[in-house]
Amino acid sequence: MMHRAAAAAVVVLWAALTVIDAQEQGTLLALPELEHCQTRPKHFQFNNHWYYFSWDVPSNIETDPTTGQPAGIKVNWLEARNECRRQCMDAVGIETFQENNMILQFIESRNVTYIWTSGRLCDFTGCDSREDLKPIQVKGWFWSNSNQKIAPTNRTPPGWRNTPWSQKGHFGGGQPDNAEFQINNTTESCLGVLNNIYNDGIKWHDIACYHKKPYICEDSDLLIEYIEAVHSVKL
Fold first, then answer.
1. Which residues form the signal peptide (predicted)?
2. DSSP structure class, residue 54
3. What is the pLDDT of residues 57-93, one digit of tens each?
């Protein structure tokens, strides 16, 4: 029998975050699947969490019709989360200076142009009434894989040596800048890591969620606990 606390936690999390994605594009968050969780890729490890890069999974490689060469599949932010979640993982949440360094070193070593993270702006129904999230572009960011708030964007996070947000962007200013809203009224509500796109090093940027990118998945303790409880297995 599934542990009640685990079941409740997963259901609440799933229901709450489904609201976000239903507002975006009418797509539900995926629940984990036993077989995929048992065979999830494990490319590198940090603090007892396994991670994998989407382009290192053979099934995510296809032939580019224009060049005939192998190319990694790119997906939007929600699709990235769902691909991870089916495997008891989620798009990476970069919660410490050490974890950020690990991700940046991986991006640099592989010369990856950009990746999706689980970072999200709380700009959907219910967020506008929360005083602790105002101003929204400064205090409204969170890691959707863990529901942990991201430090205010106008200061260096506690325990970090510098801010992970870029000081450059499309219009020359620091991040987040919601630049695409000024171009086509599309809010930049999702967080990606870009590799020197603006001659700024490897830095965090706010990005409109529909853009397609590769992604890094990270073990989800909550989803692993859910599958272990439901199926009486140990992952």
1. 1-22
2. G
3. 998 998 888 888 888 999 999 999 999 999 999 999 9
**Does domain 4-231 correspond to CATH entry 1.10.10.60?**
no
CA distance 235 to 233: 6
- Indicate the Cα dihedral angle 21, 23, 25, 30, nearest 10°: 20
Find, among 154, 148, 143, the residue nearest to 216 by Cα.
Answer: 143
Cα–Cα dist 107/110, whole Å: 5
Q: Are 202 and 169 in contact (CB under 8 A)?
A: no
CA angle 85, 91, 92 (to 5 degrees): 135
Helix 77-85 × helix 4-25 angle, to 10° = 160
Q: What does the pLDDT read at residue 51?
A: 98
Record the pTM.
0.90
Query: Burial of 9 by CB count in 10 Å (0-12 exposed, 13-18 middle, 19+ buried)?
Result: middle
Report how far apart, in Å, the C-alpha atoms of 47 and of each of 68, 149, 218, 220 are.
39, 20, 11, 12
In angstroms, the CA 173 to CA 57 distance is 36
Instruction: Name the pLDDT band for 3 (thresholds 50, 70, 90).
Output: low
Residue 118's nearest CA partner among 35, 204, 55, 177 is 204
Q: How many angstroms separate the Cα of 181 from the Cα of each of 12, 169, 170, 207? A: 31, 13, 11, 10
Residue spans of the domains in the chain: they are 4-231
